[in-house]
Fold:
Amino acid sequence: MPERPHKPALVIFTDLDATLLDENTYSYKDAAPALAACKKAVAPIVLVSSKTFAEMVPLHSELSLISPLVAENGGGIFFPAGVTDIPKNCVRHDSSWFRLDLGTGYKRLAKALCEIQGETDIALEGFSSMDEQRVSLLTGLSLAQAKLAKLRYWDEPFVAPALSPQDRARLKKAAAARGLNITGGGRFFHLHGGSDKGRAAALLKSWYRRQNPDARFAALGDSDNDIPMLEQADFPIFVGSKGKLPESPANLAASAIPGPKGWNSEVLRLLKKCGFGV
Structure:
């Protein structure tokens, strides 16, 4: 079913882990009422995550979404083959999806992380050096899910125990010298380059505004790597721990409840505010 004829008035960008999905169970059941309300309001939900495309597709299908999705912290945008107006610089990913590459290639990132570790003498462990058992242990994913989490194109998650503020600054400086960025997520740091969630959200805003020039955008997240996406939104909403509340953007709304329960209440409130009669 094509997206274009819907002319969506409100588009919702959302992070997954600890936002739409429970941090421990990876369940969205606490957000089910708001998800149903979005479907009724024809308000597209765009999944924007550090997860891989392979991890996100089953959830996209389970939620019966027809919107694009953004994988690996904005490294790539995937458009379902059924939508109209697919950007010309997309490539065919498979029979069901087109892909818009935005980020730095994964081999370069894995090599750079090793170089940064040697240069800074800070112990770093990236996904590229982990087996599926190790990824499963750190994430709580099953081995099958951990296998999907390792199918990466543009983002290298890594752990770095007991980092001081000075160590973080050194890591970011070493990454910047290579034209790369380090951001923090819920469980991991992420090394990436040439892209972030904000750049991907900006491109999708332009895409949706070709369908409806008056479309407005909400974004929900819980971590530092969500800030660029939140800064792109008309309605930025933080559903993380109050101790992690970012200073930007200035119009940020903060949920009193973290995770999918907060997602549910905030999205229902927003739909009502925007006149969807929820």
